[in-house]
Specification:
It comes from Streptomyces aurantiacus JA 4570. This protein is α+β, with helices and mostly antiparallel strands. Helix content is 39%, strand content 11%. The protein is globular, with a radius of gyration of 14 Å.
Length: 115
Amino acid sequence: MTKYRHKVFVDRHLNRMEEIMREVCADFETELVEFNGENGHVHLLMNFPPKVAVSKLVNSLKGVSSRRMRQEFPDLAQRYYRANKLWSGSYFAGSAGGAPLSILRQYIEQQNRPQ
């Protein structure tokens, strides 16, 4: 979630962010299975080994993506709400256990569709 849920991203930002996040995941030996985003947040479906700490992975995803997006898209800073931060400090991580991957993908794909 972007800081204060401000509308920040357009398609070109989301496309580049997906590339950056895939690179970060690869560094953690983690598979980014599905990426979907809107103008103020992103959804990630990841498959990662038990040795990876979720908090470290998320901090790296946020830190690296924020730094690189600001470098590559200086115009983003004009869309920040108040603080000079791209992401809020919070995140949600859930375990999918035995849920079929197709169901999880469908859920993520439907997140940016109007209800």
